[in-house]
Write a structure and sequence with these properties.
This protein is mainly alpha-helical. Helices cover 80% and strands 0% of the residues. Helix 1 crosses helix 2 and helix 4 packs antiparallel against helix 5.
Length: 206
């Protein structure tokens, strides 16, 4: 087994264990069933993105192929999970024990681990700036899904998506602003990937 597949397997296992523990604890503490707990927890972009990272890594670990563009798009989303959490949300929450471990795994260690995996193993030299556009599909789809499901249960995961309080115009502006931030971070990823790819090619030619 190659180093790439081993690292991917470690990341996939970390995501699986973390999310399984989170779901299990929520079921135990709230006395809710599995489907209800999954419905509640998967209203957050953090769970969406960690799950997708875990699935992509599992595919690589099993010998499958995931394109550099897809993995780079996942890097964008998981990086935004970490950035938004640590800039805007971390100081609002206090966790202890296993809850602190789960929180750190989802918002810090999995993002850092996947970023390190991307830096070392992903062939990123062929990235171009137009690749950023399809990377915006995931956050846009999430925003739409979050608002649609909130129409059924009244639960908005984030205040900037609270359509009932903010109205359509302000909520749309918030989503547009979010996509612009995603685009900017995505452009940085492309820029870094191109330069790192050239450095790797140059080193290989020596």
């Amino acid at each position: 087994m190659t180093a790439k597949r081993i690292c991917a397997a470690i990341l996939a296992l970390a995501v699986l264990v973390t999310i399984t523990m989170r779901i299990g604890l929520r079921m135990e503490r709230r006395g809710a069933g599995l489907l209800d707990t999954l419905w509640l927890n998967y209203r957050f972009f953090t769970l969406w993105t960690n799950t997708l990272v875990g699935l992509a890594c599992a595919r690589v670990a099993l010998g499958g192929r995931v394109s550099a563009k897809i993995q780079s798009g996942l890097l964008l989303s998981i990086s935004m999970v970490a950035l938004v959490y640590h800039v805007l949300l971390a100081h609002l929450r206090t966790y202890n024990g296993i809850d602190m471990v789960i929180d750190n795994m989802l918002h810090t260690f999995v993002p850092l681990g996947f970023a390190a995996y991307w830096l070392v193993f992903v062939d990123k030299g062929a990235l171009v700036y137009k690749d950023v556009l399809p990377w915006l599909i995931l956050p846009l789809l999430y925003c739409i899904t979050a608002m649609v499901r909130a129409g059924f249960d009244g639960r908005y995961p984030y205040h900037f998506l609270n359509l009932s309080d903010l109205g359509l115009f302000k909520t749309s502006l918030n989503i547009l602003g979010l996509l612009l931030v995603f685009s900017a971070v995505g452009a940085v990823i492309v820029w870094a990937g191109q330069r790192l790819g050239r450095s790797e090619q140059f080193a290989g030619a020596e």
